[in-house]
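Researcher: Let's do a round of design. I'm pasting the structure tokens now; please hold your answer until I've finished.
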């Protein structure tokens, strides 16, 4: 049979806003859609930049309300990964993936394997990892199909759960801030309030307790807060008011958007240094916190320990080498704070500038110095 036009099913597709409306202004390199009829897989991979290396970022498995919501989310997250990697000095670009649907109801090994074939087809321009809704076991399964995956379990020679590394990085960021504000990296006797004592917050509390810091902890789960407090001599404070506790360092380690027009005037700390992603509710809040006199350590510089750790899987994971690289967060943060001071800009803008300078330098090198 000779086809004279588009298949009937394709002809029925409704027009929709295209990915180029996001890609063009933000200089995205590629957005790829993957579908597998046998398993029902629907996935999107966004590759923001491969200037510094392959676009690395996790796979979020989530029941997005609409396809557009999934597209916006995957692009926003891939863009963030480019900056996080660049600021951390890693030779990798920014990418991210989403699988559309509720993992609790649609996840099967066959679906994950179909997703792995989709990732493999991108030939290493995108390297995947764990994120919300996916697990190290999923990464192990993906590894059976493609080498373009990180964050596999320790049993498989990978780096395992990144949370301890992230907590370690936050600790080094706090030491940098202490050095800047009080002339010594020591955190002994410093009052630190941690909001959210899950995987990162609890490990951070242990480090700080060992350093002799005086802790307050908050968590929406009272049992979790009580458990951490019990072995770190911390005081438990209500989750809703954690940002307004009188302390030296407030450390948001739960959700994003904790620093807003409503909360910034209520801060009673000298600095904010935490692991939560996207701590500033809006771009304007970077100015607001600067004007308030509180030092804000940019989230993606502070919480890069996890990605630095994962990056060490290349060429064989070595914990000691990973830890040495994570310590670099201290120097990176001091460089960001210096740049902000020198140029009279917010610390968030200084982090972006540092990342952009590195990407631009690599772009120029790739063009042969032009
Ligand atoms: P987690 O889910 O293990 O812990 C989060 C904790 O915060 C939980 O105990 C939860 O009960 C608590 N919580 C939720 N809402 C809260 C609220 N409003 N106030 C106080 N507590 C609240 O998550 P995690 O892996 O520890 O990550 C913490 C944050 O750090 C997240 O924003 C995450 O995106 C970010 N982050 C984590 C890593 C990592 O390696 N795990 C890396 C980079 C960034």
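Researcher: That's everything. Go ahead.
Model: Designed sequence:
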């Amino acid at each position: 049979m000779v086809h004279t036009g588009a298949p009937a099913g394709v002809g029925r597709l409704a027009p929709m806003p295209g990915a180029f409306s996001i890609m063009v202004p933000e200089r995205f390199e590629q957005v790829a859609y993957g579908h597998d009829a046998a398993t029902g897989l629907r996935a999107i991979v966004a590759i923001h930049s491969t200037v510094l290396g392959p676009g690395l970022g996790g796979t979020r498995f989530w029941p997005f309300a609409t396809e557009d919501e999934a597209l916006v989310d995957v692009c926003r997250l891939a863009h963030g990964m480019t900056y996080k990697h660049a600021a951390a000095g890693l030779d990798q670009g920014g990418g991210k993936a989403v699988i559309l649907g509720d993992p609790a109801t649609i996840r099967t090994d066959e679906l994950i394997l179909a997703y792995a074939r989709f990732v493999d087809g991108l030939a290493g321009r995108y390297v995947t990892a764990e994120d919300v809704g996916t697990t190290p076991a999923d990464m192990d399964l993906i590894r059976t199909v493609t080498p373009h995956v990180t964050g596999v379990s320790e049993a498989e020679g990978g780096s395992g759960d990144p949370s301890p590394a992230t907590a370690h990085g936050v600790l080094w960021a706090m030491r940098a801030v202490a050095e800047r504000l009080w002339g010594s990296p020591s955190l002994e006797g410093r009052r630190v309030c941690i909001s959210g004592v899950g995987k990162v917050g609890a490990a951070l509390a242990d480090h700080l307790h060992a350093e002799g810091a005086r802790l307050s902890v908050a968590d929406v789960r009272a049992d979790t807060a009580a458990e951490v407090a019990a072995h770190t001599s911390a005081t438990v404070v209500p989750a809703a008011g954690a940002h307004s506790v009188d302390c030296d360092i407030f450390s948001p380690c739960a959700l994003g958007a904790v620093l807003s027009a409503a909360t910034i005037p209520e801060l009673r700390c000298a600095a904010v240094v935490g692991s939560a992603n996207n701590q500033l509710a809006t771009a304007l809040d970077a100015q607001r916190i600067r004007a308030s006199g509180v030092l804000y350590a940019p989230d993606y510089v502070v919480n890069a320990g996890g990605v630095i750790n994962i990056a060490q899987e290349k060429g064989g994971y070595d914990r000691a080498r990973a830890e040495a690289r994570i310590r670099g967060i201290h120097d990176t943060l001091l460089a960001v704070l210096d740049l902000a001071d020198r140029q009279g800009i917010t610390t968030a803008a200084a982090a972006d500038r540092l990342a952009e300078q590195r990407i631009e330098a690599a772009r120029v090198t790739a063009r042969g110095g032009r």
